[in-house]
Amino acid sequence: MATFFQPRADPSQAIEPPLSQAAGYVVVVVIGLVIALGMVFVTKLLKRTVGEDNKKTEMFMTANRSVRTGLTASAVVSSWLWSTAMLGSSLVGYNDGLAGPFWFAAGCSPMIVFFAVLGISCKRKIPEAHTLLEIVRIRYEKPAHIVFMFLCLVNNVIACANMLLGASAAISAMTGMHVIAATFLLPVGVALYTFVGGIKATFLTDYMHTTVILIILCYFSVKAWTIEEIGSVGKLYELVKAATERNPIPGNHDGSYLTMTSKDGILFGILHLCANFGLVIMDTSFFIKAFSASPKAVVPGYIVGGIAYFAIPWAIGTLASSVVVGLESNPIFPTYPRRMSSIEVSNGLVLPYFAITIAGKGGAICILLITFMAVTSTLSAQIIAVSSIISFDIYRTYFNRTASDIDVIRWSHIGVVFFAVFAAAFSTMLYYVGVDLGWTLYMLGVLTCPGIFPTVFTILWKKQNTAAAIVAPLLGMATGIAVWLGSAYAIYGEVSIKTTGLSAPCVYGTVASAFSPIPYSIIISLFNPQNFDWADFRNEKLAFGAVLDVTASNEDIETPSADVPSDVEYKRWGRIATYWSIATFLGHWVLWPLPMYAAKYVFSEAFYSAWLIIAIFWLWGTLFVAGFYPLIDGRKQILSVLSALFSGKDVAEESGSSQASSIQVEKVEGDGPRK
Fold first, then answer.
1. Long-range contact list for 30-33, CB < 8 A, 24+ apart?
2. What pLDDT is recorded for position 605?
3. How does this protein lie in the membrane (predicted)?
4. ∠ at Cα 463 (457, 469), nearest 5°?
5. What's the pLDDT tens digit per position in 84-107?
6. Domain limits of the chain?
7. pTM metric for this prediction
């Protein structure tokens, strides 16, 4: 079995950074602040032209629940466009062959699409919610609320550490910038624009960053064929074939890179699938984005975004790892004449070395940009998620039940700043104890998975009782940690950073953590079923005020009720989401890869060519979905903003009096509506 830490060379060896430290600071600090100031300007522009006031809690946290399908799909792609998605998929491609990037992609798309089921169910049952934890509190009250708060915060912290460790290592390798400096400076710009713009700023920066990243990735998919050493898919195939004959991959069929029959590959697939279900379902930012989408945009947004996302780790991971494996023995490769060291691989440097190989300093600049944009975009979602927990689930729930807009916004701002600092500090601590991208990529599921099924049951199953909601995830986490550490000791004879980051203990621990809560929850619930009435969710008023649809132009603004589907429509969307979830899981995880694993097939040149070309075409399709579809879908609001801007009229002021006269109801928890 190939291990994640298989030694290849002296780990003290390192390439000379192709860019200066100044370049690193310019991107991380200057560009970060420019983007942040740009988002501040856009936020103020939207307030003046279409009345989007981020001093109102509903706008700051949920964008008035009015985000359209295109921007939702783009935000979904962005939510998973972590720096680790690109760095990690290339990493597992280098270690496990072609199976690695495929399993990386297959471990993401099914649960993103499945989230449409949860999203539309929440929209139907509790349309005024802001966070997952509000749902848990209403159904199970305080003890379960605290348990799930702990689970969600653990998820957010581990996710941020994973992002920052990978991004900081890549930026350091490209520029020589100190890892800790990058770790602390990356969240600065993110905290600034999230502080001012809230969730809408997150959506807009998600869109901008995702578009730039996809343009660069598509550039790589073309640039790779222009260098003389590659030239064509057929030549790349021959290079990879020759390289794997020199350095066969233990655990792969015939030691080949060119096969889906990879033991470590399928183990990683299982691990990644479970871990990502935890990352999606226990990530409050996914719920916030679902609550922020208009009711008719949730299902199509998550389905389109989830399927489009599949191409990113599959295409770039396959192409980058193929080039690195094929050209590692060529003088143009950065580490020549040696192979990449295990430290370099585990730090996620396969993709940066690929970019340098095909595009020199230009490639290094591209990697610097996409790493920065990926990590800041996803950090924004994590920061707004933790901010919402601090403001809604801690402050508003336990300290000030009648909190006003101003109070909640203030604590949201405190949450933004606090978590940005804490995430950087926690990542620094992990760095100094010897943890890197590889370790967090493999083990994070042990901590993120225990809440998966208790959360799903909370939203979809009436009978789960309070005791099950409290006990099942805690027992699941204890079971997963025990299996993880016990497996590391049983297989490798010690419990250390090295052994606990290897694939086998992480797979066993993650599976135990994910699935053990099922029997725990069912058995405990069946002793005393709750039989919860979904209508009880509507008894508590959570929204701060009525919500207007601000996505349309002034001429065709809809009333809030006109945009809300009927119960029949909600159920139809629920069925569509369920069918697509099943189809995506079966297609991406069962019917496509498993027969190829069982067949022990080594790719021919023609099959490899088709495999890679389809992945690249899919990647370009993702650019259309995430980059151009939001512009098409949101053209009315864009034209409305431009019209107001060029006419010099302040639409917000003009419409303010009419809106104030028609909607002057502030919903205050405990007091009911008041004039």
1. 31/189, 31/372, 32/185, 32/186, 32/188, 32/189, 32/190, 32/372, 32/376, 33/188, 33/189, 33/192
2. 94
3. Multi-pass membrane protein
4. 55
5. 788 889 999 999 999 999 999 998
6. 21-674
7. 0.82
